[in-house]
Structures are given as structure tokens and as C-alpha cells.
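Why does residue order matter? Because the sequence determines the fold. Keep that principle in mind as you read this record.
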Amino acid sequence: MDKHISIVPYDPTQGIRLLWDDGFIISVQGDHDTVVIQANQAGLLTLARHCLTLAQATVPPGTHLHLDPATDLEDDSIPLILAKIADERSA
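Structure:
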């Protein structure tokens, strides 16, 4: 299956701009051992787009997205933060 996912190019004057698929459902559950992210097709495509948006070379490390219950996630979810780190590993 080939799927083309459009992202908004990063602009440092506007910051990260996100696109959401219609009808997305994303739920995040977890404890100290395991995190489970459940999503319908639109939700998985939305999460993939968010990750690809952060992965752009022009997006600086430290840039992050907060996904919260009742706004971005299902009401019974725990918050989720997607964050970009530098490519180099610390010694």
C-alpha cells in the first residue's frame, strides 16, 4: 500500500503547524511499564503526519507537541508529548 502524507513545511516564524485527519480517534493509556497508543485509521495517519512534521530537518531539537485528553485525545487518555531530540547521542 502506498500512502502519500502531506505535511506543512516548518516555518520558524510560525512554528509547527499540524494537520488532522477528519474523524481521528487517538487514545493513550499507560502505567510505569507500558504505554499503549490506540487509534483508528485517521488517528494513525494523523500521528504519522505529526511525527513527519517534527522530523523535518529545519525543525529544531527540543520542539515538541502536547496532545491532551478531551482536545486531541479521547477523554480517558493520558497526555502524550511528541518531542524531537538532536541526532547525536550523548556520551
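Strands lie at 26-30, 35-39, 64-67, 80-83.
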